[in-house]
């Protein structure tokens, strides 16, 4: 809803245009949050694509062309899936029974899988848990790289081009469905995370910069819900399409179509002003005013100078020249960066740790994962209320204290 001060026939100050939350913001928020859902599905794809499946050792002397995961001749004794039963030395029958084996075991070298729903079967990763765990680690490393690089790209090339680039390049994940080598798969996983992860930072900055300061918290909550919806949608899709190749094609394939976003989402006016693209910034301001039905003095906007426009939006000249080195020159900023970084690391470690391990709980792994993501929804509403009422620091400390105690 547009700010009441700028409604009706009253001429609104140019600087007040970005303090409204109207149709322009609603449309742009929706357009930005939609691909964020797909990016979220990509960033947790390994939970099911590289998930564990049942398998057993292959006993060549007893197998036939129609061998199943639960053969009738399998020994009654408990055998771990990385070991193979040993046949009796005097076994001469053309078939095997439960009594055809000794109590000895040997190391297994071939396996039969219950299904091929994950890469474990198709890339033959049985009894190599470190390789499976490495995929998640590599993906997280790629996300870290992406966050760092995308910040620079957003400042250098713009928020909108960076966002679209990171989203569209996510279709590189389709290559994983054609590889037959584990190491190639890991490389593609890293590249995929290295590009898609950056869309989060670019998207969040756009959402914050096209609305007023009092809507920043709401922007974060809306974007968080887009991420949660993506996680829920991923669980539902995986529930009905468990085969990993089809699953990846469903979530990666549509990303290529977001290339058309270059025609329907717009750059942040604030970034345009900071980078001296004043004429484009004026066009953006006019667009926002028109869509939100805000009455501004267009003649004043056309004749306003660069310095005056920067002044109206509280953009000082030194802001343009600031770089990453400024972080280390200010003790306050550096301290806050370290504290917030540690808070973010801790929260992510706990949140994704619980979510990833939910598939190991008794019951249907897809339902367990879905429930673990749904549980995140109330938290954002609670945090929105508490932070608006008590600020950021108290709710943050209380949240960590309660979580740590529980």
Mean pLDDT: 88
**Strand-and-helix sequence, N→C?**
HHEEEEHHHHHHHHHHHHHHHHH
The biggest sheet amounts to: 2 strands, antiparallel
Roughly how many Å apart are the termini? 40 Å
| Secondary structure tally, helices | 19
Return the structural class: mainly alpha
Strand content: under 5%
Strand order of the largest sheet: 1-4
The CATH topology name of the domain at 4-52 and 123-321 reads Growth Hormone, Chain: A
Q: What is the helix fraction of residues, given as a range?
A: 55-70%
CATH superfamily of the domain at 4-52 and 123-321: MFS general substrate transporter like domains
- CATH architecture assignment name of the domain at 4-52 and 123-321: Up-down Bundle
| Low confidence ranges | none
Instruction: Write down the Rg.
Output: 27 Å
Q: Quick one: overall form?
A: elongated
Question: How many strands appear in the DSSP assignment?
Answer: 4
The top-level CATH class of the domain at 4-52 and 123-321 is Mainly Alpha
Summed up:
It is a multi-pass membrane protein. By secondary structure, the chain is mainly alpha-helical.
List the helices and strands and how they pair.
Elements: H1 23-43, H2 46-49, E1 55-57, E2 83-87, E3 101-107, E4 111-113, H3 119-122, H4 129-157, H5 159-168, H6 182-196, H7 198-209, H8 216-240, H9 244-252, H10 269-274, H11 278-291, H12 298-303, H13 306-312, H14 317-321, H15 325-329, H16 331-357, H17 365-374, H18 377-390, H19 393-405
Antiparallel strand pairs: 1-4, 2-3
Helix pairs in contact: 1-7, 1-8, 4-5, 4-6, 4-7, 5-7, 7-8, 8-17, 8-18
């Amino acid at each position: 809803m547009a700010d009441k001060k700028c409604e009706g026939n009253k001429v609104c100050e140019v600087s007040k245009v970005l303090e409204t939350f109207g149709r322009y913001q609603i449309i742009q928020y929706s357009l930005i949050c939609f691909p964020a859902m797909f990016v979220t599905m990509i960033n947790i794809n390994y939970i099911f694509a590289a998930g564990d499946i049942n398998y057993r050792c292959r006993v060549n002397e007893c197998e036939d062309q129609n061998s199943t995961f639960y053969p009738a001749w399998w020994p009654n004794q408990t055998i771990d899936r990385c070991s193979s039963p040993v046949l009796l030395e005097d076994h001469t029958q053309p078939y095997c029974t439960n009594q055809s084996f000794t109590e000895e075991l040997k190391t297994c070298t071939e396996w039969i899988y219950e299904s091929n729903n994950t890469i474990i079967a198709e890339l033959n990763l049985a009894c190599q848990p470190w390789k499976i765990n490495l995929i998640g680690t590599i993906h997280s490393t790629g996300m870290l790289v992406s966050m760092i690089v995308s910040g620079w790209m957003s400042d250098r090339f713009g928020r909108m081009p960076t966002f679209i680039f990171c989203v569209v390049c996510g279709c590189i994940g389709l290559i994983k469905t054609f590889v037959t080598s584990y190491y190639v798969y890991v490389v593609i996983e890293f590249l995929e995370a290295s590009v898609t992860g950056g869309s989060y930072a670019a998207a969040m900055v756009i959402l914050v910069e096209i609305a007023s300061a009092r809507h920043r918290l709401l922007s974060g909550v809306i974007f968080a819900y887009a991420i949660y919806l993506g996680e829920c949608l991923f669980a539902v899709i995986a529930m009905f399409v468990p085969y990993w190749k089809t699953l990846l094609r469903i979530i990666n394939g549509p990303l290529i179509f977001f290339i058309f976003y270059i025609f329907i989402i717009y750059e942040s006016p604030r970034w345009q002003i900071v980078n001296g693209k004043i004429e484009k910034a004026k066009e953006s301001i006019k667009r926002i005013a028109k869509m939100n039905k805000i009455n501004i003095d267009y003649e004043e906007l056309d004749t306003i100078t660069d310095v005056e426009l920067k002044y109206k939006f509280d953009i000082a000249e030194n802001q343009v020249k600031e770089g990453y080195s400024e972080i280390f020159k200010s003790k306050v900023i550096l301290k806050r960066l370290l504290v917030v970084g540690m808070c973010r690391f801790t929260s992510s470690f706990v949140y994704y740790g619980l979510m990833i391990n939910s598939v190991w709980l008794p019951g249907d792994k897809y339902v367990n994962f879905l429930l673990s993501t749904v549980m995140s929804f109330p938290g954002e509403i609670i945090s929105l209320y508490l932070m608006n009422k008590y600020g950021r620091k108290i709710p943050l400390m209380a949240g960590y204290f309660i979580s740590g105690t529980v």
